[in-house]
Write a structure and sequence with these properties.
By secondary structure, the chain is mainly beta. Helices cover 0% and strands 48% of the residues. It contains no helices and 11 strands. The protein has strands at residues 3-7, 10-13, 18-25, 33-39, 46-51, 58-60, 68-73, 78-83, 92-99, 117-118, 122-127. Strands 2, 4, 5, 6, 9, 10 and 11 form a 7-stranded mixed sheet that branches. A 4-stranded antiparallel sheet has the order 1-3-8-7, with no helix packed on it.
Length: 128
């Protein structure tokens, strides 16, 4: 069993930065792909970024490419999302997720249904 706890959300002005963290418990954390999703009020949960178990592969939604960076530290059982040049449309609850399925090569799932474990979410609000 894997438990995920997000932190680092808050209120920031447009153009600012935030760094989200997702701490995991469970011995097999290092072997799971990880991702960040977000959900704005009244909208469905959407993919933001994913990273392979080794950290060697990453994938981003077009809306955040060039502004957000996903990374992980398996020794600390933590995955991060560095968010720069934030925009009001980035306002959402951000969720960390883990996929226990092993994937070869550079493939990373973006479908919410692929992910087995979820955190409780952390609110990010970007003011204009």
């Amino acid at each position: 069993q894997v438990q995920l706890v997000e932190s680092g959300g808050g209120l920031v002005q447009a153009g600012g930065s935030l760094r989200l963290s997702c701490a995991a418990s469970g011995r097999t954390f290092g072997s799971y792909s990880k991702a960040w999703f977000r959900q704005a009020p009244g909208k469905e949960r959407r993919f933001v970024a994913a990273i392979s178990w080794s950290g060697g592969s990453t994938y981003y939604a077009d809306s955040v490419k060039g502004r957000f960076t996903i990374s992980r530290d398996n020794a600390k059982n933590t995955v991060y999302l560095q968010m720069n040049s934030l925009k009001p449309e980035d306002t959402a609850v951000y969720y960390c997720a883990a996929d226990k399925q092993y994937y070869s090569g550079s493939y990373l799932p973006t479908d919410i249904r692929n992910y087995d474990y979820w955190g409780q979410g952390t609110q990010v609000t970007v003011s204009s």
